[in-house]
Design brief:
Mean pLDDT: 77
Low-confidence stretches: 159-176, 245-253
Number of strands: 6
Shape: globular
Helix content: 25-40%
Largest sheet: 6 strands, parallel
Structural class: alpha/beta
Radius of gyration: 23 Å
Order of helices and strands: EHEEEEHEHHH
Number of helices: 5
């Protein structure tokens, strides 16, 4: 032991820090799953303003389509929150003509199908919620008091009796949805813009091509998700109770 420096008998060797993954500066994704070759050369300009309400838990999820979507669309913004309210968005606080995309969850929360929406040539604001199915329902319920002041609830054509598939049918399933019509945020926006935009078909095709490539690349590193039957449990129990009451004819309105 050195009397001048009594601590010099400790020999500590710092372990090397793990190498950080290289990240693409343009798409901000890890290099092995870079999407730059599929992204539009310039963000797509739309008349529709897209506002994405992003749940905090989804912000860092590796399968989130929101970061990719905002790089594809020029007129898109993201709000990270569990509930929309006054003061979060200068655009929404102006109470513009708007629609928010979410299926009906009960008779007190109806939704117009997007294909039957009657509209003029006024540009709309499209509000979409990005979260797990459970969280998204909670976000919509918490936000409807604010949204009901200026926005109409609409939904894609869907069928609760059909189990949800992947973000595109008959291919990779990475995040199982509860039933048909409940799709990824990026696919939902693509389908909506197909109806809302004059060149909607081209926009939808571009977005879906990017989405397909994202899933193809990500599938190399993730195991496919198993179906989530618990999400359909309540619906099946309801159907069972109705069937047990008899087979009286009914009219769907």
């Amino acid at each position: 032991m050195d009397p001048v420096n009594p601590t010099n008998h400790f020999h500590m060797t710092a372990e090397p820090l793990p190498a950080r993954r290289s990240v693409c500066v343009r798409c901000a994704r890890p290099t092995p799953v870079c999407l730059c070759e599929r992204l539009p050369a310039r963000p797509i300009t739309t008349r529709t303003q897209v506002v994405i309400v992003h749940h905090p838990h989804e912000a860092d999820h590796k399968l989130s389509t929101v970061p990719v979507l905002t790089k594809c669309l020029l007129n898109s913004t993201t709000i990270i929150t569990r509930r929309l309210r006054q003061g979060l968005s200068p655009l929404l606080d102006q109470f513009p003509p708007a629609i928010y995309l979410f299926p009906p969850t009960n008779p007190s929360s109806p939704a117009v199908t997007l294909s039957s929406l009657i509209r003029d040539n006024t540009p709309l604001v499209l509000v979409v919620f990005d979260a797990t199915w459970k969280h998204a329902k909670e976000m919509v319920s918490a936000s409807e008091g604010y949204l009901s002041k200026f926005a109409t609830r609409v939904c894609l054509d869907y069928d609760e009796s059909v189990s949800g598939g992947s973000i595109y049918d008959s291919e990779l399933i990475l995040r199982k949805e509860p039933y048909g019509g409940c799709v990824s945020t990026m696919e939902a926006v693509a389908r909506a813009l197909r109806v809302l935009e004059p060149n909607g078909t081209d926009i939808e095709r571009t977005l879906i091509e990017v989405l397909r490539e994202m899933v193809r690349l990500q599938a190399r590193y993730l195991k496919p998700m198993k179906p989530r039957p618990k999400l359909l449990k309540k619906g099946k129990e309801k159907d069972s109770k109705e069937n047990s009451k008899g087979s009286e004819p009914s009219i769907s309105l």
